[in-house]
Amino acid sequence: MGCYPRQKKYGPPSSVVAATMVIITNSTAILEGATVIVVSFINIINPPFSMDPMLAKHLTYAFGHIFANCTIYMAVIAVYEILSNYTGRPWKTNKVFLIAWNCSTIFTLMIYTHHLLMDFAVPKWMLIIGQVFSYANGLPVMVVTAYGALMIVYHSAIKWDFASSMMFLAMFGWVAGAVPTIIDATIVINHIMHNTKWVPGHFHTYMGMGVVAMIFGFMYYFNKTEGTQKEKSLDKLAIVTYFIFFTGLTGSFLYAGKISAPRRWAEHLPEWTASDQVGALCGIFIIAAALVFTIRFIVGLKKIGSNTTDKSLKSAS
Description:
Elements: H1 14-45, H2 53-87, H3 95-108, H4 124-137, H5 140-153, H6 162-184, H7 187-193, H8 198-226, H9 233-258, H10 273-316
Helix pairs in contact: 1-2, 1-3, 2-5, 2-6, 2-8, 3-4, 3-5, 5-6, 6-8, 6-9, 8-9, 8-10, 9-10
């Protein structure tokens, strides 16, 4: 760990802490999902051999929910590293940071049960766990990371470009998406809202404006550091477009949930279609912004390739 500054005996760097948490939780999730798949194949070959349906359902939900959460926690590693690089400040690990990540490791394995709050067959104590720890899980890492992002940027004279802007705005997407998530994890609200578009509303908020924004930010940072890509005014316009219209898209989902528009329906009643149309319009602009990000990334990769070839030829000669 010679590349990291020495810290006050508070354990490994922040990125290593996050990666360790993901390895622990995602390994558990993959094992749960694989168990269901293997037993299902065995059941096809030998029908008398079967798994309890309730157990299979829990393993499936646990796999899906943990896996989705891990994408966020893995992407946060880019935030830790890139914002630290831009500000020239190490993202220090301290006792509060380590406690938060340890709590999140435990809670992430438990909170999938908030997707089963409408299931009468699930034991009551599991539903209570789903509600209580869904509340708790929204605080440790999210608060520590969001607060850390503010503190590491504060008075740092950071240069705001595509990568740093996307990483910082992604913190907003993550925090904003967690709020309707916690609301949905309340049992009495969940019974009304969970099968509505409220759920894709909160999910798209922290995935689209959180995880995907972190990925786009890392893509630009990679091309900038490994190649010669420079920011253009088109990039700034694309960032503004992406976040404004993604806010509109998720807002249309949440509003549709508020008026009880169901999710997974092929057709909607006339009173639900206005929010659908707003979401579709916002989606067009989101796709346009994402195309700008992607095309710029691909062009940047080509420049990296040509630069590498030129260097190789010069060294050979």
